[in-house]
Design brief:
Length: 459
């Protein structure tokens, strides 16, 4: 069987002509000066020169584009806000980028079902802005909200800080519409709360990283806005101490929805990068950002918390809360400002996080004693973001050692960013041979020619 392969310039020109007939002249880019930004990712690690960038305006156009690319055996890379961290949406040289950013429709809210149908290209921030005046909210949130699209977040099953309470994207997607590799459209947007008729195709497409279909529209759950919010930045003496705080919050504070952590080394870098003041008079080894949200003021539930943390500041106004989150959410951009990082988004059982934090230092130092570790993440999910700066980007010894440690602690080599191009070679560390075989068979059944996001997710 013929499989997708990189396009020669002449074939790319022919395909471009065909695609222009589908989406209009201005929506197919081939000039490298215009396509470049679609090829460089935020981390600086993944760079490709796409043959073409095509931006359809609706599902029918996406279907026609997929069909044309399949006929030309052109590898197609679906791309949303291009804010991913594992190269899943970044083209390699000669691949075709299918940008979903023009799919920005938001349909009227179905109030009785508490669901909304949105286009894949709506950004998380635009969706949040749409919902707020309606007294509603979406329960997945993360620092990349201004760029990340809802379609991309579904394709990668994004998590974020509130996942400990509300789950990841898969929990908030009631249905999807997607174009399959043969150009057919699979549509499950009815939003039936109960529909027990076989395989969960929505759940399969969510988190499939563009390898099984191109998500064009989504049916999302929404919840009543909880307008009363308190954010607390706390200093604690260790990650073990942080777990004691988490245990208290989990057992006594129903309104808690996020417990993130970072360390003094990361705080120092963020403060240097953004010229921010120190949050406390003294330094702490570990910091927590705790967020509670409710219809009524969650402050009463937090009585007793201050007794178990060494130091804390709280804010309940939007600007004050944003200011406290800034110390945590700016870590990502701060790390990137230091060089091309090794970014390892991993999870371990929550109770094993302190042990992982200790051992990961040794593992990294054994490979490169000069490497700088910036360690942070989502405590409530056992999700650590191991960021390492110093070692050359193509020196993967640190990545390998960290991921092997994760596997030895019964963790996952990807918690919330996905596998993309970055981690395919290590998938078997935390997915069994029968699991990988089943995934391969699903991929072969749905995309026999390997047109959709080839080389991502599976080795
Ligand atoms: C976060 O939690 C994002 O800030 C990015 O998932 C994580 O910078 C990272 O590695
Ligand atoms: Zn994260």
């Amino acid at each position: 069987m013929c499989r997708a392969h990189l396009l020669e310039p002449a074939a790319a020109e022919l395909l471009a002509t065909e695609l222009r007939q589908i989406v209009g002249d201005g929506n197919v880019l081939s000039d490298p000066a215009l396509t470049a930004s679609f090829g460089h990712d935020l981390t600086g690690r993944f760079n490709g020169r796409p043959a073409l960038v095509v931006s359809p305006g609706d599902t029918a156009e996406v279907a026609a584009v997929v069909q044309a690319c399949a006929a030309a055996q052109a590898p197609l890379v679906p791309q949303g806000g291009h804010s991913g961290m594992v190269g899943g949406g970044t083209p390699r040289d000669g691949e075709v980028v299918l940008s979903l950013r023009r799919l920005t429709a938001i349909e009227p809210v179905d109030r009785v079902a508490a669901q909304v149908t949105v286009g894949a290209g709506v950004t998380l921030e635009a969706f949040q802005r749409f919902l707020r005046p309606l007294d509603l909210e979406f329960l997945v949130d993360h620092g990349g909200r201004s760029a990340a699209t809802l379609g991309g977040m579904a394709a990668t099953n994004a998590g974020g800080s509130q996942a400990m309470r509300h789950g990841m994207m898969r929990d908030q997607v009631a249905g999807v519409e997607a174009v399959l590799a043969d150009g057919s459209v699979l549509s499950r947007l009815r939003g039936l709360a109960k529909d027990n008729t076989g395989y969960d195709l929505t759940g399969l497409l969510v988190g499939s990283e563009g390898t099984l279909g191109v998500i064009t529209r989504l049916r999302l759950r929404v919840a009543p806005l909880r307008p009363k919010r308190v954010t607390i930045l706390a200093g604690v003496e260790s990650l073990d101490g942080a777990l004691a705080v988490l245990e208290l919050l989990q057992s006594r504070v129903p309104s808690v929805q996020a417990v993130d952590f970072f360390e003094q080394a990361g705080l120092r870098r963020v403060r240097e990068h953004l010229q921010l003041p120190a949050p406390f008079e003294r330094e702490y080894p570990t910091y927590l950002v705790i967020e509670c949200a409710g219809r009524t003021d969650p402050a009463d539930e937090l009585d007793g918390l201050l007794a178990v943390v060494a130091d804390a500041v709280a804010a309940d106004d939007p600007e004050g809360r944003r200011g406290l989150w800034r110390y945590r959410e700016a870590l990502n951009e701060t790390v990137t400002s230091l060089g091309i990082p090794h970014k390892l988004d991993v999870s371990v059982p929550v109770a094993s996080l302190p042990r992982f934090a200790r051992e990961v230092r040794d593992v990294i130092a054994a490979v490169d004693s000069e490497a700088e570790l910036i360690f942070y993440g989502h405590l409530g999910d056992g999700n650590a973001h191991v960021n390492v700066v110093g070692p050359a980007p193509d020196d993967l010894r640190i990545d390998e050692a960290v991921l092997e440690l994760v596997a030895s602690l019964d963790g996952s080599i990807s918690a919330e960013h996905g596998v993309g191009l970055a981690k395919t070679q290590w998938l078997s560390l935390t997915r069994s041979a029968p699991e990988i075989r089943a995934m391969r068979e699903i991929k072969a059944a749905l995309d026999p020619r390997g047109v959709l996001n080839p080389g991502r997710l599976m080795p």
